[in-house]
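Troubleshooting entry. Yesterday's outputs looked truncated, so today I'm pasting the complete records for two proteins to confirm everything comes through intact. If either block looks cut off, that's the bug. Protein one:
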Amino acid sequence: MSDLTELAGRYISIWNEPDETERAAAIADLYTTDATYTDPLADVSGHDGIAAVITGARQQFTGFEFKILGDVDANHHIARFQWELVPAAGGENIVIGFDVIATDGAGKLKTVSGFLDKVPAGA
């Protein structure tokens, strides 16, 4: 398992963390202070901006969890992977996304660029 595969796993686990305090601590541990997160619905920077996006997604999709879909493809300080949003109780995914993460070279996330491949109607 590469360091970037482990990093992608930690990244996804933050999206599943229900406790706001634990989530904030995990964000501070994983991201640089000036990290950016960009997807079709958000373009934020810093720990507070990233936390707000994750909190919003958790509120919108209560009862669902994020999972890495397939393998993490990594080289140097960049990785790409697909993820899915599935009911926590089991079932088919309702969202599929594709993220590209880049580190600062010292093991912290510097940028996340997200794309949505499958979204539910009206979302």
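Protein two, checking that the full record survives here as well:
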Amino acid sequence: MPSADESQRLMMAPGTPLLIHTRVGYDAEGRPVRYMVSRMAADRVEVSYDLNTDD
């Protein structure tokens, strides 16, 4: 659940869950070069992935 500050900043209704999506980006040599964290109100987003399974 979101903190009071997160809930206020995202203008979330009481009781709304918070989605936290953490990602790491890598360069061509496989070294991590960025770290990203996104916070989203669960009632306003749809998260979907398209995975390439040909590899």
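Both blocks look complete. Sanity check on protein two: Strands lie at 18-26, 32-41.
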